[in-house]
Design brief:
Catalyzes the dismutation of two molecules of 6,7-dimethyl-8-ribityllumazine, resulting in the formation of riboflavin and 5-amino-6-(D-ribitylamino)uracil. This protein has 4 helices and 12 strands. The protein is mainly β and 195 residues long. It has 2 domains: 77 residues, Elongation Factor Tu (Ef-tu), domain 3, CATH 2.40.30.20; 91 residues, Elongation Factor Tu (Ef-tu), domain 3 (Beta Barrel), CATH 2.40.30.20. A 6-stranded antiparallel beta barrel has the order 1-2-5-4-3-6. A 6-stranded antiparallel beta barrel has the order 7-8-11-10-9-12.
């Protein structure tokens, strides 16, 4: 489990197709404290550590994960949001995030509002019903509050801190971002279907 509070920004330093996609991510984490098999959310995707070095870790990514996320867009040098798995007793500063991406949203508009940036995204039709004003979503692993919803489109406001502490300062119109809907919204919708 994760919180959607980004704790590091990594860089894709190697990509190899070896049956599965193998990715090396250079990071600022003390890798001596990372166990083999540990889970690290990388742009919101819960990935398993399969190798470690002094300032990097490697993950193996299945074809299904590539198909359901934006990991197929990853290139050498790309910066990615990182979060290590939640430990018992850690502060839950965002919302409960599983790292199981539901789909990919597209950035369709951006404009500045004061020091902040308003970003409009388009969700896949099947996921749009789970997104509500003032509800939570995880986008590229970042816990965010939805401002408004218009059918499949929804707006997020990024304050300067978020643009610096995450990769959201790099985003441009047309980017595809990993979308994980709020777990509570998923269960509420399922209960409504059952009644």
């Amino acid at each position: 489990m994760f919180t959607g509070i980004i704790t590091d920004i990594g860089t894709i330093s190697d990509l190899k197709q070896e049956g599965d996609l193998r990715v090396r991510i250079t990071c600022g984490y003390e890798t001596g404290g990372i166990d083999m098999g540990a889970s690290i959310a990388s742009d919101g995707v819960c990935l398993t550590v399969v190798d470690l070095g002094a300032d990097w870790y490697e993950v193996q990514v299945s074809r299904e994960t590539v198909d359901l996320t934006n990991l197929g867009d990853w290139k050498l040098g790309r910066r990615v949001n990182l979060e290590r798995a939640l430990k018992v007793g850690d502060e839950l500063g965002g919302h409960i995030v599983s790292g199981h991406v539901d789909g990919v949203a597209e950035v369709i508009a951006m404009h500045d509002e004061g020091d902040s940036t308003r970003v409009t995204l388009r969700a896949p039709l099947a996921l749009a019903k789970f997104i509500a004003p003032k509800g939570s979503v995880a986008l590229n692993g970042t816990s965010l509050t939805v401002n408004e919803v218009d059918n499949c489109d929804f707006g997020i406001n990024f304050i300067p801190h978020t643009k610096i502490a995450t990769t959201w300062g790099d985003v441009v119109v047309g980017d595809r971002v990993n979308l994980e809907i709020d777990t509570l919204a998923r269960y509420v919708a399922r209960l409504a279907e059952m009644t």
